[in-house]
Design brief:
65 residues; mainly alpha; 4 helices; Flagellar motor switch protein FliG N-terminal domain-containing protein; FliG_N; FliG_a-hlx
């Protein structure tokens, strides 16, 4: 059986976090990362490495509440 809700939810949160950090200045991204534990930093940085470009539209859509 496939687990859907929790893993997909965590993966999406990691992706959005990566997109947000890539959109920030280096200084601001460093401040955010300094507040996270090592395992979370690793997950987010690995996701950031997978992202090639971010369109303006995707950036706006990713951060809607």
């Amino acid at each position: 059986m496939e687990k859907k809700s929790e893993p997909a939810s965590k993966k999406e949160k990691i992706r959005k976090s990566a997109l947000l950090l890539l959109s920030l200045s280096k200084e601001d991204a460093a401040k955010v990362l300094s507040k996270l534990d090592d395992s979370m930093i690793e997950e987010i940085v690995l996701e950031m490495a997978q992202i090639k470009t971010i369109s303006k539209k995707k950036r706006r859509c990713s951060f809607r509440i």
